[in-house]
Design brief:
The chain is α+β, with helices and mostly antiparallel strands. Helix content is 37%, strand content 24%. The strands form 2 sheets. Strands 1-2-3-5-4 form a 5-stranded mixed β-barrel. The chain has a 3-stranded antiparallel sheet with strand order 7-6-8.
């Protein structure tokens, strides 16, 4: 086994035996990595981190060449705990949602540095005091884009009429994009939700811009609510089970 050092976000931890933890990391260089950290619950002083969810760490792990995907992690040094996020329940909830959604959608050990950067940039967004809900929509849109799941918003998914030519557009979750009025009315295409030009404009703008450029972008209440409804349904469509973080946020009205 060879030793490998990389930066990693904590996605999920689980107690293992008496003193160890099983941890899902999202690393800059290797994508999602599953590791075991032995003895951390018994001798935390040996480690520079307590492996808090969504914290950023530098880890050293021994990558197994064969026999499974569970690697031995021998060093964990904290880089950023994002304390401002942890001090606010709403922001803490959204940060937990980001890591849970990421963990559900990505496959193990598929490197994607752009996704690592997205997590970092959105956590920094949350520390800035800008809207946590807007940050969530940005995270969802860009994550879907990086994973190749971004809905079609440039033209009707059936007849291919360009979006700018549509007086009315409808979003079809099962088809993965917008429809024109005539195609949405056809039987057998599933349920469609009306989508405004303002919402389509915001979707396109998020795809083109960097996260840091979107901190001060203002969105009307109507567009925000419409976008949340559409993306929530689209997210649920791609998940086998509803995320615990989403259930918690719905109970609190976040």
């Amino acid at each position: 086994m060879s030793a490998t050092k990389t930066e990693a976000f904590i996605l999920k931890t689980q107690d293992y035996r008496d003193t160890s933890l099983l941890v899902d990391f999202y690393t800059r260089d290797f994508g999602k990595v599953k590791g075991i950290v032995k003895g951390i619950r018994d001798a935390r002083a040996r480690y520079g981190s307590t492996l808090e969810p969504f914290s950023l760490n530098e880890i050293l792990f021994y990558k197994r060449k064969r026999g499974g995907d569970l690697h031995q992690v021998t060093q964990v040094e904290l880089i950023d705990l994002f304390p401002e996020v942890r001090e606010d329940l709403e922001r803490l909830s959204y940060a937990s949602y980001f890591t849970e959604l990421l963990n559900q959608l990505v496959e193990a050990e598929e490197p994607a540095p752009e996704i690592f950067d997205l997590v970092r940039d959105c956590l920094r967004f949350l520390t800035s005091g800008a809207s946590a809900k807007r940050c969530a929509r940005i995270f969802e849109i860009k994550l879907f884009e990086h994973l190749g799941l971004l809905p079609e918003i440039k033209a009707c998914v059936i007849c291919r009429v360009p979006a700018q030519e549509l007086e009315l557009a409808y979003f079809n979750v099962s088809l993965g994009g917008i429809q024109c009025k005539d195609c949405a009315a056809k039987k057998g295409t599933g349920t469609s939700l009306p989508v405004s030009k303002g919402t389509l404009h915001f979707l396109g703008h998020v795809c083109r811009a960097e996260v840091k450029e979107l901190q001060h972008v203002k969105v009307s209440q109507g567009v925000g609510e419409e976008l949340e409804k559409i993306l929530r349904r689209f997210t649920d469509f791609h998940l086998s089970n509803k995320l615990k973080s989403l259930v918690f946020m719905e109970k609190l009205g976040f």
